[in-house]
Amino acid sequence: MRQAASGDSQYIIIGKIGSTYGVKGWVKIHSFTQKHDDILKYQPWYWFNNNAWHPVTVENGKQHGKGIIIKLVGLNNPEEAGLYTGKLIATVRTKLPKLKHNEYYWSDLEGLQVIDQQGSHLGKVAYLMATGTNDVLVVKGEQEHAIPYLLGNVITSIDLAKQEIHVNWEVL
Predict the structure, then answer these.
(1) Partners of 48 in beta bridges
(2) What does the alpha-carbon distance between residue 166 and residue 159 come to, in Å, rounded to a whole number?
(3) What's the CA angle centered on 143, arms 138 and 147, to 5 degrees?
(4) CATH of the domain at 130
(5) Domain end: 95, 127, 158, which one?
(6) Looking at the domain assignment, is residue 172 inside a domain?
(7) What are the residues whose beta carbons fall under 8 Å from the beta carbon of 41, sequence distance 6 or more?
(8) 101 in a domain, yes or no?
(9) pLDDT digits (tens, 9 = 90+) for 87-134
């Protein structure tokens, strides 16, 4: 899950509207939640438009095959629904589950400064990606680095207050 584009940490991006589905205004959803269908639990939803967050009302939503489809209130045909393709979906942080010690939402890690064991600043976390085996921090600085998110091994410490992640990482 990512922090919302406006920089407002109250809103966490949990998915994105995909292509239309059927003729009654349904759309496919690309969920950024760990369990894809959990996105339906984190309502109300919001999207960013005209420099402000606006609530979105889900009329119906369900798992469909390996994906999620939803029907939004007011969208009744593919032409109307298609106008929202690509819009990011956010929810408020308070709707998300509380995390255990040493667990973080991706949005909390994005933008943190990454420092190696010699004290060199490698750059900031631009984004994270899931690879199946483990998540990867994509760090952009003078160079771009893909650093495995292996807490206690490669990731030696995370300090949200200082906005730092310390890593045991050799830059070749």
Answers:
(1) 53
(2) 8
(3) 30
(4) 2.30.30.240
(5) 95
(6) no
(7) none
(8) no
(9) 999 999 888 888 888 888 888 899 999 999 999 999 999 998 888 788
- pLDDT for 6 equals 41
CB atoms within 10 A of CB 163: 11
Is residue 29's pLDDT more than 50? yes
Count the domains in the chain: 2
Q: Domain containing 43: what range? A: 2-95
Tokens of 128: 């994270």
Q: pLDDT-derived band of residue 9, with 50, 70 and 90 as boundaries?
A: low
| pTM score of the predicted model | 0.71
The pLDDT value given to residue 149: 93
Q: How far apart are CA 50 and CA 96, in angstroms?
A: 25
* 80 and 37 share one domain: yes
In whole angstroms, give the CA distance from residue 149 to residue 142: 20
